[in-house]
Amino acid sequence: MKFIYSDSLDGVDPTFNFLKESCSPERQPYWDDLLPHELLGYAPYDGVLVSKATVGDHRIKGSYTIGQARRFELVGARKFLRLDEPEFKNIEIFGDCGAFSYVKEDEPPFTPEEMAEFYAECKFTHGCSVDHIIFDFDDKLSGMSGGTAEAKRRFEITLENADIFLRANRAIGSSVVPMGAIQGWSPDSMAEAARCLVGQGYKYLALGGMAPLNSSQIQKSLEAVRSKIPSWIKLHVLGFAKADEIQYFKGYGIESFDTTSPLLRSFKDATKNYYLPTGDGKLEYYTAIRIPQALENPRLKKFVKMGVFKAEDLVKLEADALSSLRQYDAGIRPLSSTLEPIIAYNAAFVDGELYNGGTLSPKMQDLKDKYIKTLSHRPWDRCSCKACTGAGVEVMMFRGNTRNKSRGFHNIGVYAQHLNDLELRPKAIPVADTTPPATAKERQQSFDFTPF
Predict the structure, then answer these.
(1) Choice among 73-87, 178-192, 278-292, 352-366 with the minimum mean pLDDT
(2) N or C of the chain: less Cβ packing under 10 Å?
(3) Is residue 245 within 8 Å of 238, Cβ to Cβ?
(4) Where is this region: Disordered (predicted)?
(5) What are the residue numbers of the active site?
(6) Rounded to the nearest 5°, which phi and psi values hold at 5?
(7) 227 and 297: one domain?
(8) What is the pTM of this model?
(9) Which letter does DSSP use for residue 203 in this model?
């Protein structure tokens, strides 16, 4: 399977000063920040997916600024994502519409003809037809039974748009590989959609609406779809949220899948924030140490406003937690005394009270146990990726974008290696060069991640 990284222009500032908590005053995020393949020194993915909704326009506010969106369309996806160097020539650029962003609309905001032109002008290698998400999924339904009137309306819209998109793609002589988007309210309705798309002429299909489904529902959908289409038809899974369970999808003929899960886990998961391979085809998870910024964390700011804490008390707790973790990393503080200030600060924003050494709440005790594992195992010292060797223990702090996304980029690299270990990728990722990669001329930035 090809691992396609779903991009939202997430970058890491290589000049960030961890001790001063500051960026360079001259920093320009798009130009200066590093994308995963730049920070790690190699591309850990087989391709990148960019949604039209992420780029944005006058109808949908995307993640890009107006200037970035214009540059994307002017220079094309590959150059914009800085994948135009020779070593990245085999990285594929997938595109879709970003249907989750307009799920509440009666009709998709983008026309099939418009999307065909967008993919061609921006030099994508693959482009999905315009779909409309169906959420009311029931894997117990058979045939074309069930399904609300709205679900069936969206089913027809998606198929009609696919037919128009394929014709438009051919009419403009595009080299973009067209992908027919599948939507349905059950495995069998998805299978029927797949059958219709193959009849239209598609050779590559993309299963949409997968993100909210559990593994069993996705597997049933894949089984149903595969039963209705020739074996040579390629399948892509859009927004594969079950990326950690990929080994259970080995026999379903998946050609490719896109996911942001390894990155998102670094700062959205309650406990599984940092990955390491175990050596036996599995992943070991670690909980990042939560040390939020005392004067910026919304929950702590609320407590101060309510009079639960004084701002100066929280600032001191924060400073003590940071100092203890850094001293532990340097080998000048034992684990037991390292935990004390960290737990004291965590109790403030988890339990909303100052901790004075008494019995911990069940939630705090569970968090403490996970912190003991993280600190005693010292996973940041066991990884040779540039995110970890550059940031050191800072990569294990759940605190701010630079640390959180550095940890996420590390996870992406580990996940790619995990796929290699499972022998699921078409070819192994290249071995990372041990020398720092050359910086782009227009940025002139150092890859040194320890400016202090």
Answers:
(1) 352-366
(2) C
(3) no
(4) 432-452
(5) 96, 258
(6) -85, 125
(7) no
(8) 0.91
(9) S
